[in-house]
Amino acid sequence: PIIRALAPVAGAEALVPTTGSPIAYANLDYAASAPALTSVAEQVSAALTEYASVHRGAGHLSQVTTARYEQARETVRGFVGARADDTVVFTRNTTDSINLAASIVPGDVVVLDIEHHANLLPWTRTGRARVVSSRPSLEDTLGALEAELSRRPAALLAVTAASNVTGEVLPIGRLAGIAHRHGARILVDGAQLVPHRPVSVASFGVDYLVFSGHKLYAPFGAGVLVGRGDWLDAAQPYLAGGGAGAAVSIDDVVWHTGAARHEAGSPNVLGAVSIAAAAQTLRDIGFEQIGRHEELLVERLDEGLAALPHVHPLRIFDDAPSRIGIASFVVDGHTPREVAEYLSSRHGIGVRDGKFCAHPLLAKIGRPGGAVRASFGVGTSSADVDRLVEALAELG
Ligand code: PMP
């Protein structure tokens, strides 16, 4: 072995749910959706046993439920290191958060062509997006963004913190500096980075951060937008309805400010509780440990794949300093779908194939037909990685 065998992240073994499948199954698709941790399931169960309406009732259970929901908001605020006066809005997912953001931005938005469609289409359809072409060098790409922002003012730079295709990590602090130097704000798509690395909104200088619960070891259905309150409070509510209006008559409405303005309707309390539970558990395990574990797994996979001449990894940049636990590749002589089906049916390995909702990026890096993506999380062991490499070796 290239490195010593790695079990799942220490402290996480008991938290990773087992599938009950008769064959040992290697889930290497954390980047799509990460299985809910057992600690999350426990907290959701507890919340399920006693709840009533949130924000609406004077009864004991309503108060308990409201407290759980608002406590979850504060846990999320702490988890991402937000400023005390930032607004934390619960949404449905990252896509929803970015659509909300698109409804509040007062001006042009600069984006890169490497983005997931969730951080591209909400902007392009406003007609106010200026898409900057990425370069093979990350340094040159930062330069191109800076040039675009200095050429003409923009309200916002919207950028991913880590590619969902290659796992390459972008320098968020430097990007924030570039945006701010030119009078723009920055929105960071943290869907991929937040579950894998510590993120601090305040110390990185991030104005808005968005992410999804289902990639953070929580169930589907809840996401977050954290950020500066002024644009949020100045904009029309994202959803109109109960809870968003402070005073309503037939002819007029005074909207709330703060999170309530954009959270009309009964909120997803269980989703918020699950995100907070996952955040707390990841904190308890420790991001230093999570990051080190993934780096070793990525190194092991990269070395394994480098020995297979028929397997070709994808990269956006030739100088990205680090990657989260994601590796995409193509295999000579086989379509991505064939490879994914072979890995599943013959080896019990679950990966993703396709274009990963990043069609412009796949076209740009010369893989318009898509690729295969393996991705890791706290439950991944080095045996899972070895199994993938051995299975791919048989395709040579
Ligand atoms: N951005 C990135 C970088 C992603 O990886 C994803 C999910 N693949 C999204 C946005 C969209 O997330 P969701 O489907 O949870 O809205």
From TrEMBL:
Its cofactor is pyridoxal 5'-phosphate. Keywords: Lyase, Pyridoxal phosphate. GO terms for molecular function: cysteine desulfurase activity; lyase activity. InterPro entries: Aminotrans_V_dom, Aminotrans_V_PyrdxlP_BS, PyrdxlP-dep_Trfase, PyrdxlP-dep_Trfase_major, PyrdxlP-dep_Trfase_small. It catalyses: (sulfur carrier)-H + L-cysteine = (sulfur carrier)-SH + L-alanine. The keyword RNA-binding does not apply. Residues 27-388 form the Aminotransferase class V domain. PROSITE patterns: AA_TRANSFER_CLASS_5. The keyword Lyase applies. It comes from the Bacteria. Belongs to the class-V pyridoxal-phosphate-dependent aminotransferase family. Csd subfamily. This is Selenocysteine lyase/cysteine desulfurase.
